[in-house]
Amino acid sequence: MNVLTPLYLGVDGGQSSTIAVIGNAQGEILGRGTDGPCNHVKSAAEGREKFVRVIGGCVALACQQAGLDPATVRFHAACLGFSGGPADKQEVLRQILATDELHVTTDALIALTGATGGGPGIIVIGGTGSISFGCDSVGRIARAGGWGYIFGDEGGAFDIARQALRAALRHHEGWGAKTVLHDRLLAATGAHDMNELLHLWYTEEYPRSRIATFAPMVDQAAKDGDRIAGDILSRMARQFTLLAMAVRNQLFKEGDEVHVAPIGGVWQSQILLNHFTTFLTVVEGNQVAPPRYAPSVGALLEAYKLVGLAPQLSNVPEFH
User: Fold this and answer.
1) Given strand 286-288, what is the order of strands in its sheet?
2) pLDDT one-digit tens code per residue, 146-168
3) What's the CA gap between 95 and 28, in Å, rounded?
4) Could you please report the per-residue DSSP string of 27-80?
5) Where are the alpha helices (DSSP H) in the chain?
6) φ, ψ for residue 163 (rounded to 5)?
């Protein structure tokens, strides 16, 4: 490879993994590298060390796949998006990355750019929490949600699991409808009764990320015909619809065609996705479709934008 060819870097730094992709000026993706999470560590010193190690590791792996020497490679432009936001990362990245142009941003922006291929549209992210984010044809952006688990995150996996526990508690106390979630939650956690389970979920043994893993249980219960589980998923879909519409109303006119892409683990529930699609497409112009590219590729597209490029991508890795 001609090492003088301008190179571009995109990085998605998430809570579960960090992914780097390298492309050339023609839009060909040359290499991809993955490493562990680079956010949410115990101390500032440990956090910086882990951040540097993970970013360096995934970029080095992408370089190796591209046939580049990580020690000498220089990028014409780089964009990196992080779930913890860009604060305090720019200075560190300047020290560890050789790049002419650098843009540090949020994971929501690169997810949106990837989902729409750089065009206008809206994403609705449903992971542990939730947020909707959009951009119009002139580059205006808007968001809704993302207020955290106490005041928001409606529809996210933690909220779904929380609603399941609330339904099971009401069943237990006799003022709520019967639901299989009661027995299934007890069986899954090993708790003897709902009082024990409630207190268990307040302990450090059950952080929000672990509680969120119970969300698929609600989907399975709904598939098995449990009305309460089905109602939970329907309510969550309505919450996601409200988030998406809040963004739409800020950016688009009535009747505009808008690509809305659901992103995140909760959308593995076909029941939730079907409800969301039904609710959202009542509004003329709304089109629900899967994301076009992964957030890491969205970061690469943002890197191209820094220098005024908008190439047609090729050799794009599968979105997973």
Assistant:
1) 141-145, 130-135, 121-126, 258-263, 286-288
2) 888 888 889 999 999 999 999 99
3) 27
4) SBEEEEEEE---S--SSHHHHHHHHHHHHHHHHHHHHHHHT--TTT--EEEEEE
5) 44-66, 90-96, 107-116, 157-173, 181-189, 194-200, 208-212, 215-223, 227-251, 270-280, 295-306
6) -65, -35
